[in-house]
Here is the input.
Amino acid sequence: MKFGKSTTAQKANGVKAGKTIIHYNGKVKFTNIPLEACDYVVNGKPALEWIIDRYYIKTDKNNGITNAPNDWCCVHDNPRYIIDFLKTVCYVSSQTNNIVANLPALNEITK
Here is the structure.
């Protein structure tokens, strides 16, 4: 799983177009991800980046054990788990940022 790539022109203009696409695998691709979803940060890292970092196939160098998130999905008879989770995080991230952006200003009273 990885983000799409921005073109050179988009990078020069500061556009994060690559963040609007996530390649799940060779056959599944998410497009039109709102940029607001990429701006939702939890513990210093965007939630979507956290998912991409955690949900990929990797083999431990020391013991040779392969961590394949799709295996967990098959064992638990829920092959769409990661896809549905990614969609949910996109939605919650963008909606949370919209809610926060529309909160009224906080009026502080100091004595």
Q: What stands out?
A: Residues 2-97 form one domain. The chain has one domain: 2-97.
